[in-house]
Design a protein that fits this description.
The complex is a heterodimer.
Chain A (H helix, E strand, L loop, with lengths): L11 H37 L4 H17 L9 H19 L2 H15 L9 H13 L3 H12 L4 H8 L3 H27 L4
Chain B lengths: L6 H4 L2 H12 L4 H11 L3 H4 L7 H10 L2 H16 L1 H13 L59 H16 L3 H14 L6 H14 L3 H14 L6 H8 L9
Helix pairs in contact in B: 5-6, 6-7, 8-9, 8-10, 9-10, 10-11, 10-12, 11-12
The chains are: A mainly alpha, B mainly alpha.
Chain lengths: 197, 247
């Protein structure tokens, strides 16, 4: 019977192995923490920014892959901001890839004309679907501000910093986005009250 | 200039309902498992009991045994080619109990990350990585959705149960965690996450005031695996000193 050769734990080679493993696993631990802390938020942000349900898992994976490549440059404490910025870009790319942007207004109009509205919005999924369709009807620049302020509850200053826009521009976009949202919501609600059609 | 009040607080009832639905949207556990597995970070285990110790301790322990050395070598080989590849291996290291034989390797698609372990059918295991060096990943591997899993593969189910116990413990429900761990022990007589289950049980016992049982269990584990990936954590939990054999 062959005896398995046991490595000498005190040898230089073993020390090198341990050091290398330590370095690699340190990176892994950092990424694991990033995922553990921020995955739910990143996933939700991607969905509300227009990434289709069938693609959102891949998009979330992409966000963290990018983050992994940039781990060294992410300042401690600014992980969330970094991920938001990456997620917005990934979502934008996903929308373009699917030509959602061009079709959004048309789909929303078609939806308003043809799709029955669920009674009383009994199910969260239905409410979410309506929300997404309302958001789909917004131009991207309004949508991102609206999602970050109204859904992710960032302040206007935080949104301005993240999107690298003047605070006044963000405030203006937010006003326009809220107006668009309220008009669309009223339209749907009126149809709900009018018999669901 | 102050920010306006948010519509989720002051909008119409209908507007609030839409926005709350959006706020409540959450990644499903299945998606989370698929994403973390695809990234090579075994979140549920790694994020808690193993995270702090499994890195060096786990791999160092692996280096001490012939069977695990292959895994470590693989990690190192891949580390040279790309961090994500190594992360994948790291995830595998987390999920392979130290007392279990390594699962049969699968051929990995060159240049892609390991396919997510729990994609689609909830029954796909974390696939171990071939020793071939993958290229650094530039784009995420699409998350596999085909429900192709061996009927005998229980790892995803084990994973869910262990994660449930961990979550129960995290919210202070030690009794709930112990109940889940009892169920786990009955359901999986040949567990692949046995070490993780034992460590969680030690934590749950200690948290529920059953310290003597926790210490007994911890010492038994340390006797079996004095250099195992959880040894440091168990010593910390039961107050044992390193280097001294448990009495």
């Amino acid at each position: 019977m062959n005896k398995a050769k046991k490595p000498d734990p005190d040898s230089d080679e073993s020390a090198g192995v341990r050091a290398e493993v330590s370095r690699v696993t340190k990176t892994a631990v950092t990424l694991a923490k990033l995922v553990s802390d921020h995955l739910p938020f990143v996933w939700r942000l991607l969905r509300r920014c227009g990434v289709p349900p069938a693609e959102v898992d891949d998009a979330a994976q992409r966000v963290f892959l990018i983050a992994n490549e940039k781990l060294a440059s992410i300042r401690p404490g600014s992980e969330r901001s970094f991920l938001i910025a990456v997620a917005m870009r990934v979502a934008s790319h996903a929308r373009r890839a699917n030509q959602r942007r061009e079709a959004a207004h048309q789909r929303f109009s078609e939806y308003q004309a043809a799709c029955p509205v669920p009674d009383g919005l009994a199910h969260l999924a239905e409410a979410r679907d309506l929300l997404d369709r309302v958001l789909d009807g917004m131009p991207d620049d309004l949508r991102s501000v609206f999602v970050l302020f109204e859904l992710e509850q960032l302040t206007i200053s935080e949104v301005a910093e993240l999107l690298e826009l003047p605070r006044g521009t963000v405030a203006t976009r937010l006003r326009r986005a809220r107006m668009a949202f309220q008009v669309a919501a009223k339209s749907i609600e009126a149809r709900t009250e009018g018999g669901g059609q | 200039m102050t920010d306006p009040k948010r519509l989720i607080d002051e909008g119409s009832a209908f507007e609030r309902e839409l926005l709350r639905a959006g706020r409540k949207d959450a990644v499903s556990q299945r998606s989370a498992l698929a994403i973390t597995a695809a990234l090579g970070v075994a979140a549920p285990i790694a994020a808690t009991s193993a995270l702090g110790t499994a890195g060096t301790a786990g791999t160092a322990s692996a280096a001490a045994s012939g069977g695990k050395l292959v895994t470590v070598k693989t990690a190192l080989a891949i580390a040279g080619a790309g961090a994500m590849g190594a992360l994948t291996v790291w995830g595998v290291i987390q999920l392979v109990p130290t007392d279990a034989p390594p699962p049969a390797p699968r051929v990995e698609t060159k240049g892609k990350l390991t396919a997510p372990a729990f994609a689609g059918a909830k029954t796909e295991p974390v696939a171990p990585v071939e020793t071939a060096q993958p290229e650094p990943a530039k784009a995420p591997a699409p998350i596999a959705r085909a429900p192709v899993a061996a009927k005998t593969d229980t790892l995803p189910l084990e994973f869910e149960t262990i994660d449930g116990a961990r979550s129960a413990l995290a919210r202070g429900d030690a009794q709930g965690a112990l109940a889940l761990l009892d169920r786990y022990a009955k359901r999986f007589p040949k567990p692949r996450l046995g070490a993780e289950a034992t460590v969680l049980r030690i934590e749950a016992l200690a948290a529920s005031g059953r310290r003597d049982e926790a210490v007994r269990l911890g010492k038994a584990l340390l006797t079996r695996e004095p250099r195992g990936p959880y040894a440091r954590r168990v010593r910390s939990l039961i107050g044992a000193e390193k280097g001294k054999p448990p009495r």
